[in-house]
Amino acid sequence: MTTSNFLDVTAIKEDFPIFNRRIRADQKLIYLDSGATSQKPNSVLDAERNFYQNHNAAAHRGAHQLAEEATEHYEVARAVVANFINAELDEVVFTKNATEAINLLAYSFSNAKPGSNFHIKAGDRIVVSEMEHHANLIPWQQLANQTGAELVWFPITPTGRLDLSNITNLINTRTKIVAITHQSNVLGTINPIAEMVKAAKAVGALFILDACQSVPHFAVDVKALEVDFLAFSGHKTLGPTGVGVLWGRAELLNKMEPFLTGGSMIENVTMQSATFAKAPQRFEAGVPNMAQAIGMAAGLNYLSKIGLPKIHAHELELTKYALEQMSGIAGLNIIGPNNVEDRGGVISFTLDGIHPHDVGQALDQYGIAVRTGHHCAWPLMRALNVVATTRASFYLYNDISDVDALIAGILKAQLFFNSPKKSA
Q: pTM for the full model?
């Protein structure tokens, strides 16, 4: 079976030049690591190249034609992002990546003046979860350490879901920040954000959503979610590296302290003082990452043209098939939900008697690219009592034949390492 009920994967792959490559002794590339970074279609490569070839100048600087064009292209990219997540234009801040976006928030909160809604002090509480990527954990650890605030977290269940049974005790009246991943980069679990947002709002806490693994894969509406801030990266949305997004409610962004200071983020400057511009310029000091933002917009336009509902359905089709096939392999352990309910196209697994790194290297010999390791989620690995996992992540350019190749590669790896063979 190589066809999809939702997407023409053969036609899609033709848009991605990297799939013309042959690797590892002239084998077809089977890319199952989009959870780390996505491949780039020609439209993204062309958009960046067109900017540099025809419009290259510093946006928001200069009155000459190229500067005007650079500014227009950059701001059109912002509008594309805003439309993609149903946001207002002045609520979209371009950053280097989601990690920087989350650090921007933590740094700004650490500099907030007493009496501010963002001021964090000893006795306050910051709530995260046990399945957070380090990018949405360490900044809050640091903020708690700097301010004396208490860091607490939702534990995970044995099936890879968040345990919300103690939600009213965790998100209590002392809680100032709740920062949660939308979809786990390890488990594929899509978390029940609405319930946690409701609990945060009940005590006046800010809700921050790490949407790196959700925005590229299914429709995300910031207004419907009712979160306060959201972060994601361009390189996971078919776009280039070096660009990400912080979305925040305009009334909140305009009250926050700047993250970086310098050119383009000021209203007025004297030798003794400065006043700062409104968002988003308030958080975009220096010459911006123009070509990258434009490339990111091209990636989002590509996803919109195909349709996120179709992409999500296609990924679930692949995930369901992969889970079914993996269930027949003796010695293979799924780490996370074993069905597609509230789940994305990420599957982490272990093989009895074989280190995940060895599994990844074995698969690589067959042209299959997967991720191995702790996936920047060490606390989650410890909670799961595993040292690492092998992770396959699916996207719009994968099909059933890629899953079949993965399964065949796993069986070959087991045979090579003398691990248990497929069950009868």
A: 0.96
